[in-house]
Structures are given as structure tokens and as C-alpha cells.
Amino acid sequence: MPTSAPGNRAGFTLLELLVVVAIIAIASAGVAFALRDAGAASLEREAQRLGALLESARARSRLTGQPVRWVADEQGFHFEGLPRGTLPDHWLDAGTRVVGRGILVLGPEPVIGPQAVVLTSTAHPEQALRIATDGLRPFAIVPEQP
């Protein structure tokens, strides 16, 4: 059953081509948004995890009345003042590094001084995240300004 003008013709109409191009554009945009930069996602995951660990150590310090310090080292990090094995002491991604001084004092006082630590990744050294507190609020993740 013919759907266009009589006669034999080969090819597609302009409308058919535009529909196909639009479908391809929408599909490729969806794929681009779905695929995040793995390095940035890994660094963000590490920062969120560290923020939670710091808050946990801060709460334990206040509960026990014992001072707790977070110290970054070559193998990862550790919490001084807590029994070994209480909290994790390594990065999930071996390429995670601390920029600058890697020591935070987490308690036991309810109000601690403003503190921050900057994380970066060996895979993406241009990206950095700061985990910081003003001493009253919980540790939060802030993009590091270059």
C-alpha cells in the first residue's frame, strides 16, 4: 500500500531523517548524563565517608570524654584515642590523598575549633574536596577552590 505520491522512489523524507536525528540526540544526551566521571564520583564517595567517620569519632569522643585525633598517613589514616579497629583506617580508593596537614582534633569538648581537610585523587589531581566544620556544625563537603 503506497503512502506517498505514486511512483517508485528510494530514500527517506526529510521528516523521517529529522525524527531519527532527534532520537539519536536524545539517546546520546541521556548516556552522557548517566555516565559520571568515575574519579570525581570516587573522590566524592571518599569525602562523604570521611565526613561520616569524623562525626562518629567526634560523638565517641564526647561520649567517653577522651580526646580523639584523626591523623592521615601514607597508608591511609587512623584515629588516635580510640581502640584499634573501632573505625576504618584506610581509603576505599588507594589513590585518595590528603593535601597539606592531615590532623584534626575531634573532641571531647562539645565545641571544637574550625577545622578542615582537603582530599584529592592521584587519578584526577585537579579535583579536590574540602571536608570542614566551623566547630559547631557537622563536617560538610565543600568543593575546593583552585
UniProtKB/TrEMBL annotation:
NCBIfam families: IV_pilin_GFxxxE (TIGR02532). The chain crosses the membrane at residues 12-35. Keywords: Membrane, Transmembrane, Transmembrane helix. This is Prepilin-type N-terminal cleavage/methylation domain-containing protein. InterPro entries: N_methyl_site, Pilin-like.
